[in-house]
Amino acid sequence: MLRIPEGYFQMGSEIGQDNERPVHKVYIDAFELAAHQVTNADYAQFLEAADHPKPPHWEDPKFNHPDQPVVSTSWFDASAYCSWLTRVTGRRYRLPSEAEWERAARGGVEGKAYPWGDEPPESLLDYHLRWIHGPDPVERSNPNPYGLYEMCENVHEWCADCYEADYYSAHPEKNPRGPAAGSRRSSRGGSWRHYIRVSRCAARSSIPPGFKYADYGFRVARDK
What we know:
Blueprint: E1 2-4, E2 7-11, E3 24-28, E4 31-33, H1 40-50, H2 75-89, E5 93-94, H3 98-106, E6 156-162, E7 185-188, E8 205-207, E9 216-217, E10 221-223
């Protein structure tokens, strides 16, 4: 778990989709975020201890290496993992908010499209050789300035928030947590199976919380 410092940042993008506008100033309290996405090895401990149902693709050799991120977890599964981790550690674990996730992905660098800058994803080392049949093991890419791996790539990551396309036009400046209700949950980051496999820091996505897709995983946040 790595400390993400408190502070303001510019959230959103003028070059992306309509749901990323307007660019606006947001303040986030300090929190901690996992250096990498929850792995199959991490999730196996939860399955055994909590007697939780295995996700689809759990036995599939394209997705079940211990160091790959766990996939096909619903938002409810991800939340249950956080609740279990809270019980066994005595520390409050949870999913990050959209605003927390974007602040962490940017790594303290303002105005850049990606964690490494504005160069296109295709410029990454071995880009065309990666993510052929599934996600990579975690910590394969270079970390961002906060020390976080695979922000914006590998798998979509569930966020805590309900999703609303025009939420940016009205949300609070400090620690926004999403709308009070909604039929979809927000997610962030790229996907191994998309044509463009790495997303911009500001790119938003969402699906219903019960869906279990092979390119959806998560990473955990923790209160300071």
